[in-house]
Specification:
Distance between the termini: 102 Å
Structural class: alpha/beta
Strand content: 5-15%
Order of helices and strands: HHHEEEHEEEHEHEHEHEHEHHHEHEHEHE
Helix content: 40-55%
Largest sheet: 6 strands, parallel
Strand order of the largest sheet: 7-4-3-10-8-9
Number of helices: 15
Radius of gyration: 33 Å
Length: about 450
């Protein structure tokens, strides 16, 4: 009605001039037609956008079938898996498209070939070196099973708040790559990440048994936060992932090219099935040379290497472990019954007696003691004075201690310690055995 009234008033005002009236009417009709055309165009655009989103939402994506599972290899019930699919899967649908690489990846970056099957990262955030090494071997095997290049993290040492020790500063990367495709994390981040893992595609993957939204607590606590911060990595969101499902469908590389996990996709203690992989873990040339030089200057061959695990933290650990059938790295040993005190925390008298028997039976010329307690080592040395044999302690740090123990003519270790288990696996993979406190025979 307002439009008609307006026209009437205009017509009355210009009644005296039919020509002017016609000009005004044509102008008003033109404006009305223009507004109507704009409205039609906007409606068509909205309809097209809605149709496009519906098609995209109905397309299959690798993340839609994400399940749950224990990072250390356990499985959950079908009901919890279905809950995960229903709740977490629906929430992830809205943002999953952002993970797709719209532009095709180059075949090489900085002379390094890009793996079209994708990459696997993890934080080595459980325990010290012995635990981290077991997780590395398990993760290496897992990466091979899901056919992704393993991005090897540095080892973590706990100092203010952490320090990082590159894998390649200790071990031969070429030998590891004979088993499966690997790349050091520093190399990946400095040369490849900007192309294959841009900031907007950086998601954290973790297992969950909750039907709520996935919360990986990505950088909560030490060493999680400091580890990722060391590489300037921030995550834009969390994703569910299970080590017990088929990644080829659950985490297809087209949607999940780089999978970064909160913890290692491996068990501790590691499965005996994986012990043979220790043959792919060898000291690099520089480390071997330094080790042999130190041995030549300080020890007389044949020598016996002893790992003496001590300290208040170990005492507390053994309080929990004694009496159990299996505890920490004890599966490296074969024994009947349960773990006893001598196996986990032998007394000074136990240590002196065991070393003395081995020296007398085998005629070793010197003894090397690798330990985290120099005070306990000195007590043992005093107890061995009757043997009139040279006893040396390590002073080159824990990695040098390990290297000296792996190269020994014979080794005596702690059945429960994962530090010992590194030496044990290394030697067994090279057809050499080990003795253990609390156990009689060589294994």
């Amino acid at each position: 009605l307002s439009f008609v009234d307006c026209v009437f008033e205009v017509r009355t005002a210009v009644r005296s001039s039919k020509y002017l009236f016609r000009i005004v009417m044509v102008s008003l009709l033109s404006v009305t037609a223009f507004i109507f055309a704009v409205t039609i165009i906007n409606a068509c655009t909205l309809l097209l956008d809605t149709s496009s989103n519906v098609v995209s939402a109905n397309q299959p994506r690798g993340g839609d079938e994400e399940g749950v599972g224990d990072t250390w290899g356990g499985d959950f019930s079908a009901s919890s898996l279905n809950a995960m699919k229903t709740n977490v899967g629906e929430e992830q649908d809205a943002t999953m498209e952002t993970q797709h690489h719209v532009d095709p990846l180059p075949s090489t970056v900085s002379g390094i070939a890009i793996d079209p099957s994708g990459y696997l990262l993890y934080c080595p955030c459980m325990g010290r070196f012995g635990n981290q090494m077991e997780h590395f071997i398990g993760s290496l095997d897992f990466a091979k099973r899901v056919n992704r290049t393993l991005v090897i993290p540095p080892f973590i040492t706990y100092t203010h708040p952490i320090s990082l020790v590159p894998f390649t500063s200790l071990f031969d990367l070429r030998l590891v790559s004979e088993y499966h495709r690997v790349i050091p994390m520093a190399t990946f981040m400095s040369l490849l990440a900007s192309k294959v893992w841009p900031n907007e595609h950086r998601y954290m993957y973790c297992p969950t048994i909750s039907s709520d939204a996935v919360d990986c607590k990505t950088k909560v606590g030490n060493p999680f936060g400091p580890f990722w911060d060391s590489f300037n990595i921030d995550f834009v969101g969390d994703r569910a992932a299970s080590v017990s499902l088929d990644w080829s469908q659950q985490l297809d590389p087209s949607s999940h090219f780089v999978v970064a996990m909160r913890g290692a996709p491996a068990a501790f203690p590691m499965s005996k099935r994986l012990h043979s992989l220790a043959k792919y873990v060898e000291w690099n040339d520089g480390m071997l040379q330094r080790t042999q030089t130190w041995i030549g200057k300080n020890l007389i061959k044949p020598y016996l290497a002893v790992h003496l695990r001590a300290g208040r933290d170990w005492e507390m650990a053994c309080e929990h472990g004694v009496g159990l059938r299996s505890y920490m790295a004890s599966p490296q040993c074969t024994f009947q019954g349960n773990i006893n005190q001598e196996m986990c925390l032998p007394t000074k008298e136990d240590v002196v007696e065991k070393i003395s028997l081995l020296v007398i039976e085998n005629g070793y010329k010197s003894i090397f003691i690798g330990t985290d307690s120099s005070m306990e080592a000195r007590k043992v040395k005093e107890g061995l004075t009757d043997l009139e044999i040279d006893v040396k302690f390590g002073n080159g740090g824990p990695m040098m201690d390990l290297a000296v123990m792996t190269q020994a003519d014979e080794f005596l270790g702690n059945c429960v310690s994962s530090f010992t288990s590194f030496v044990t696996r290394y030697r067994r993979a090279r057809r050499e055995g080990a003795y253990f406190f609390g156990l009689k025979n060589k294994q």
